[in-house]
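Fresh eyes needed here. Kindly weigh in on this sequence plus structure tokens:
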Amino acid sequence: MPGNATLVDVAEAVKRAVEERDFGELLVAVERSYADWDMELESNATARVDVVPVGFDVDQETRAGRLKLNCTVDVGLRKRLDSQESSGRVKVSEVDGLMLTLQEMAESFIPGNPADFAGRLPTLPEAVWQNTEIRTAYGGTETIHEMRQYTGIFSTAVLRLPRPAENMTRFRYEDRSGNVVKAAKKAAFRNFGHAAASIRKTASRKIKKRKGAAKPGSPPHTHKRIFLRRALRFAVFRDGTGAVIGPRHSLVGRSARAHEFGGDYEGAVYPARPFMGPSLEENLNRFANEWKGSIGG
């Protein structure tokens, strides 16, 4: 025969704990049910306590190598109210007494109170008390005035039931992805800087100081004060996403574009004399090797 669900075992242990308490002159029948709160009681002589398994969730405690089942059980106190005053209202004193009984039952599960269970259920000591909460103190006007019935409910809150986890591999997880992103941005900024400097250096070497125009398809010549070579600059984006390399517009205007791609410039048609594109292609293999293993290095 298979055993009970853990939640049922906890509910049974709560039921037995309630049965052990002293209800004084109040006659009480303790039963386990599934939330029959809306059913009318037939007798007014005996109060009824319903112990209801509500739900659970599973938590994994990796350090101790255990599984924790966080179980929630509700406890409801009900009694038919037949003692009426001449006005037709229920006696306040009777409802007050039932509310006190509900409170004392709820407090009995809290460690440190008289008649407590020291935080553990007597018949299920591995079930650990977590907290207790009164959900409804008297059930509202519908049950009091229409059904002439008191209904108070509290939750034995969450009882954890640790169990050994079979074949569990213990591990410790710590999210350090932020460090990886930071290292990647730092490496990207450094590598883009090296790449941009290398492309600028290669392009500068291609530009020769010569008289006359260079042949179409070959890098352009520079003349007085080597403006084109001196105009080469590079800058790396601060977020490490790229870099820009080329002649500064403030020094040579759009003439460098006309040389690189060909086209009109100041009324003349320039043939393409590329120097930046070829410089990039010559450095591609080198860049790949510099990026390899650069994060964290």
